[in-house]
Description:
This protein is of the alpha+beta class. It has seven helices and six strands, in the order H-H-E-H-H-E-H-E-E-E-E-H-H. It has helices at residues 2-21, 29-43, 57-66, 72-78, 100-106, 152-165, 170-181; strands at 46-52, 79-85, 116-120, 126-129, 131-132, 144-145.
Amino acid sequence: MKRTLFLSIMLVLSLCIAACSTKPAKPSANDVMKQAYAQATKENKNVIIVFQSSTREWCKKFEASINDESVKKLIDDNYVVVYLDLMEDPNKKELENPGAIDILTKYQGEKAGLPFWVVADAKGTKLADSQIRSKGASVNTYGQNIGCPAADSEIAFLLNILQSTSKLSKDQLTLIGKRFAKNKQA
């Protein structure tokens, strides 16, 4: 009897430890996007979707740039920003949003590298992305991904997209450009 009680207690205890030590799964990319589109509709904003990986330096720089205190409010006042994590190292797969690769492919970013970002309207229609294309090419064709803007031409490309998809003023765009210029390699 004592042995059965002891084994029962040990089983319950081990199940509790296992349950407590398990990290909650990342939300699916579809759930993240549904929530973002609903918020964008409610707030009359567009959505910036950032596809990233926790181990890539330029992904970290992009996230740091748009979350920098000098520009975060400007971005948040004009966009709903969401991050979808994918392409993690094999030992970090739990950091990925399930289904993120499908959304990346939907927006023609699967060949682009990371970070890759998209500006979409509240219905999910792509308005722009981080790919520079030949003049006159459709936004739905493949181009050259700039990832995290750092060079002057890349920053100008980003600012042009922000100007055409938001209500940011020229002064505000200049502030954003100055922040991204800090990403230039020495």
